[in-house]
């Protein structure tokens, strides 16, 4: 369909105060891959909202833009984020810089390269797990420090009661940030069906929201070998959604980002919490406070750990780091 028809549809729905995301979803439902990317819908919706009337492309005076600016770098970056499979010709048509300028932005400024279908990309990997978080924090050195007179014995560290209040969050994240933070209710039986309905389905739904154009295409999901994770129904559900399951080596917390990085990091930052609700909120706040670079760095370290494990024939490798 001609792109001007899409723009006219966007113009009409924008006048009806329909949000760009809803417009994009409707177009994609009807036209599939022929529909414009979300960024394009969002851009035209903003222009129409700001008073633009024409749906035709405005004539560009003179030669194409050949100067590399922060503005056109960001524009190309946004278009690629929305559709990693977009071509240079499509980027040129949707942005404004010349073909050569787009190529320079991609290679020199964004430092990206095209990979063939089938190659694994970190942005396609989602990892997650569960861990107990106590409401009262008594294990830190700072909380156990006390002033004593010179020559007096150090204070006694109080051990935590086995029945101390605690909450079990389930956290999934990817190299760009968190995907799901779910806390199990006290006394809840956590079987494979609960795991599917309350963890995996929300993860899949959130990925679809975050990847409006690609959806869950090429997603790889990693979790450990817990009983509820490995159940046949869990495997069948993920396969039915087209999600590839990453195999996890038995008894290998050093190869799980939640275990070698995230959970300890959160627990070190947590203050005392009154109940499960406040702890859940504190975990969410901490996850959102982490910069995107921290998540990306952890995935890079994950790859390094995998290489060390392989090069050491699966034996203990932490001393090699």
From TrEMBL:
GO molecular function, one term: nucleic acid binding
Cited InterPro entries: RNaseH_sf (IPR036397), Transposase-MT_Hybrid (IPR052709)
Identification of the protein by name: Transposase
Species assigned in the record: Rotaria sordida
């Amino acid at each position: 369909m001609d792109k001007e028809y899409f723009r006219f549809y966007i113009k009409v729905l924008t006048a009806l105060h329909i949000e760009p995301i809803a417009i994009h979803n409707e177009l994609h439902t009807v036209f599939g891959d022929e529909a414009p990317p979300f960024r394009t819908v969002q851009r035209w919706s903003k222009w129409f909202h700001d008073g633009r009337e024409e749906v035709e492309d405005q004539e560009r005076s003179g030669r194409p833009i050949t100067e590399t600016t922060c503005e056109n770098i960001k524009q190309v970056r946004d278009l690629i984020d929305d559709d990693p499979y977009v071509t240079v010709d499509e980027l040129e048509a949707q942005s404004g810089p010349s073909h050569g300028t787009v190529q320079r932005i991609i290679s020199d400024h964004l430092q990206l390269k095209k990979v063939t279908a089938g190659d694994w990309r970190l942005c396609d990997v989602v990892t997650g797990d569960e861990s107990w978080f106590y409401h009262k924090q008594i294990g830190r050195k700072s909380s156990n420090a006390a002033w004593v007179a010179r020559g007096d014995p150090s204070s006694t560290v109080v051990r935590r009661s086995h029945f101390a209040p605690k909450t079990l969050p389930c956290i999934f994240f990817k190299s760009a940030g968190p995907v799901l933070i779910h806390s199990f209710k006290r006394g809840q039986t956590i079987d494979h069906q609960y795991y599917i309905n309350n963890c995996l389905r929300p993860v899949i739904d959130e990925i679809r929201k975050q990847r409006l154009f690609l959806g869950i295409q090429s997603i790889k999901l990693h979790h450990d070998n817990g009983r509820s994770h490995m159940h046949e129904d869990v495997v069948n559900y993920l396969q039915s959604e087209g999600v590839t399951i990453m195999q996890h080596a038995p008894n290998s917390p050093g190869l799980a980002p939640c275990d070698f990085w995230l959970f300890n990091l959160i627990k070190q930052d947590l203050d005392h919490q009154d109940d499960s609700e406040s702890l859940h909120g504190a975990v969410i706040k901490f996850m959102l406070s982490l910069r995107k670079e921290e998540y990306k760095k952890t995935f890079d370290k994950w790859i390094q750990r995998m290489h060390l494990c392989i090069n050491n024939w699966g034996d203990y490798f932490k001393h090699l780091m």
